[in-house]
Amino acid sequence: MTAYEHPGAPGPAAPYDAVVLAGGAARRLGGADKPGVRVGGRPLLDRVLAACAAAATTVVVSEPRTTARPVRWAHEDPPGGGPLAALDAGLRRTSAEDVVVLSADLPFLDEGTVRRLLDALRGSDAGRGGAERPEGVLLSDPEGRDQPLVAAYRVEPLRRELAVLAAAHGGLTGLPLRRLTAALDLTRISDPVASFDCDTWDDIAAARARIREHGHVLDEWISAVKDELGIDLDVDTGGLLDLARDAAHGVARPAAPLTTFLVGYAAAHAGGGPEAVAAAARKAAALALRWADEDTPEDGEDTKKAAGKDTENVTPGAAPGAGAAPGPHAPTGSGPHAPAGPGSDAAPDA
After folding, report:
1. What residues have CB less than 8 Å from 57, skipping those under 6 apart?
2. Biggest alpha carbon distance in the chain?
């Protein structure tokens, strides 16, 4: 498949490629298909692919499968040769000077973290006092351990050191990643959330629980829906929620989902994009406010209504200002419990 081109994504100025390692036996998951395990309604692999969506070329080293984004596929030789062999196979299909290398089990990785890694690799955030830029930037976990599969590297040093290791060991099969990273000039960035990976079912359960927390669930749900529907559109979520609130309160509760659906439909007919959504949402919000305003009496309307009710109760022929005629159950002004008027000499009840 061709490389995925992210439409208008705010990414690094220079192009970069991505290599995602999605093989492995997943022994601590009982041999389950780890890249396909769903967290927040999306396979772990799709979540990682969304984080590197701005890559010019994304290569996944694994058996081909259905993914939310188009990618290129690669295989290590021999199959099951380990992470260095897989990385070498992925790099052979890339052409950019910089590459992001990721594992396929990172539920909390996002585009912001990928940009941060690339910025540090390119010198804008490395804090190296004008020294030559590093050969790689990787995340470290809460215990300070390096995470070489959540990293950005310059491709030339990677290929150089992989060739050295292959020559020294007769190939890359079975070699650990630390053999590669030990030979590179690296910068570390601490990020306990983005570096969290899912090796066990307890890890999967923890990731699923965190995503459903109040502060995360809405963004996660929107991302899952966009992946499911095959759309890549950034919109003002707060504005749409305000529109739904105005429709629910000013019209009726069922108006909220129906109105937001119609806004999306109108935006699609207008060519799509965040601007089209915003324009349709503004029109619908204004209509909801006008609708609600009709339930609010205009100035003087309450007075007119009150005056009309008073004239309805005035006895025909009564002088202006006269009280309403007594109804059948109103006090008649006589009897032991008749109300005492102003200046009355009636004594209060004992």
Report:
1. 3, 17, 18, 72, 93, 94, 95, 96
2. 122
- pLDDT tens readout for residues 79-94: 888 999 999 999 999 9
Residue with tokens 């992210």: 6
Flag whether pLDDT at 315 surpasses 60. no
pTM of structure = 0.70
| H-helix or E-strand spanning residue 39 | strand 38-39
333, pLDDT greater than 90: no
Instruction: Determine the Cα–Cα distance for residues 159 and 64; give it in Å rounded to an integer.
Output: 25
- CA dist list (Å): 98 to 80, 185, 335: 26, 15, 102
pLDDT of residue 336: 37
Structure tokens at 163: 């060739």
CB atoms within 10 A of CB 175: 19
Virtual CA dihedral for 92, 96, 101, 107, nearest 10 degrees?
Answer: -120
- Angle of CA points 121, 223, 190, to nearest 5°: 30
Rg (CA), the chain: 34
What is residue 20's predicted lDDT score, i.e. its pLDDT? Answer: 98
Query: How are beta strands 42-43 and 38-39 bridged, if at all?
Result: antiparallel
Best CA proximity match to 33, nearest among 105, 110, 108, 109: 105
**DSSP helix, strand, coil percent of the chain (3-state; round to 5):** 40, 10, 45
What does the block give as tokens for 344? Answer: 């009355």
